[in-house]
Specification:
The chain is an alpha+beta fold. The protein contains 9 helices and 15 strands. About 30% of the residues lie in helices and about 25% in strands. The longest helix has 20 residues.
């Protein structure tokens, strides 16, 4: 509904007003709930939508409420669903999503929050540190869904080990403990293969419907000159926006300051950090260095040189954007 509002607001304002009304109706419903309704995608989208609507149309939705719901380990009123975070056998597996009570996480559901938390951090930079910390854990943990990470007795389809496609073809899910093993890559298909809804000889536990989300990591995540600090794109999954400033989230997970390079190429830019509300540099090009304090985040907005920032209530505009 809100995307439709944005598409039609200039050409058909009366129709757009109706879309906005119903978008607010849906968000008001969530805002007034007391029980956590989290399951799968929609509440994740609400984090992004609340931040965007608060910035663009002046609503006042409680973003923290939605953040807390989707990161809760046991708070869903719908089913056993929420954040899956644990350390086992010296391996940290944090930032995933699924069934926290039994350590059963899903590939698709674990990556999907990236599509919401990164643009949300752009619209409300007070959440940048949380989004950056979560995103770096998601990026790190996703490799544990791949067959190449485990021996054959830690997965259901071990014949895929070493094959080229196994580098991107992920299992649907990862169990903390199963079949007498710590860590077990699996899925729902084979265990239901005789029940009719997934019957057939050629069943596989690779998540073909969710495995394509590997591509979202490719679109959203880049390495920097500092291993462990990522350049995270806040725009790629912020759809139906026109002529956006390039915006990137950086999070430093280390307990010491780091110097992170950003390569501007041959173009000249102003570098605005929306977390601190300050320009870091003006009219610069080539490689620039960002000082990242320990356990901190920056949201870097690349604007045209000699830009001007203005504040209107809770909204920040640069050159009227």
């Amino acid at each position: 509904m809100y995307y439709s509002y944005k598409i039609f607001k200039d050409s058909q304002p009366q129709k757009a007003a109706q879309y906005l009304e119903y978008a607010q109706y849906c968000m008001d419903y969530l805002q007034n709930l007391t029980a956590n309704p989290y399951y799968e995608n929609m509440l994740i989208d609400a984090v992004y939508l609340a931040a965007m609507m608060n910035a663009e149309v002046g609503t006042n939705y409680d973003i923290s409420k939605f953040w807390n719901w989707i990161t809760s380990k046991s708070g869903s009123s719908v089913r056993n669903w929420g954040g899956v975070n644990y350390t086992q056998d010296g391996i940290d597996v944090y930032g995933m999503t699924g069934e926290p009570n039994n350590g059963y996480s899903y590939f698709f559901n674990s990556i999907y929050p990236m599509t919401s938390i990164l643009p949300a951090a752009k619209y409300d930079p007070s959440y940048a540190r949380m989004a950056g910390k979560w995103a770096i854990n998601i990026t790190n943990a996703m490799k544990y869904f791949l067959p190449n990470e485990w021996s054959e007795d830690h997965q259901t389809d071990g014949d895929y080990i070493g094959k080229t496609e196994a580098n991107v073809l992920a299992y649907e899910s990862l169990r903390k403990n199963s079949n007498g093993k710590n860590f077990y890559a699996t899925g729902d298909t084979k265990q239901n293969a005789t029940s009719g809804w997934m019957a057939g000889e050629n069943t596989t536990n690779f998540g073909l419907y969710g495995g394509f989300y590997t591509g979202f990591l490719g679109a959203l995540v880049e390495e920097t000159n500092v291993e462990g600090i990522l350049k995270l794109d806040c725009n790629k999954t912020d759809y139906y926006q026109d002529d956006m400033y390039e915006t990137y989230l950086y999070y430093n997970p280390f307990m010491e300051s780091k110097d992170v390079e950003i390569d501007l190429g041959h173009q000249y830019y102003d570098l605005y950090d929306s977390v601190s509300g300050q320009y870091l540099a003006k009219n610069v090009t080539g490689k620039q260095t960002l000082k990242m304090l320990a356990d901190s985040a920056r949201v870097i907005v690349l604007t045209k040189p000699n830009s001007q920032v203005e504040y209107d209530g809770n909204t920040t505009r640069i050159n009227n954007k």
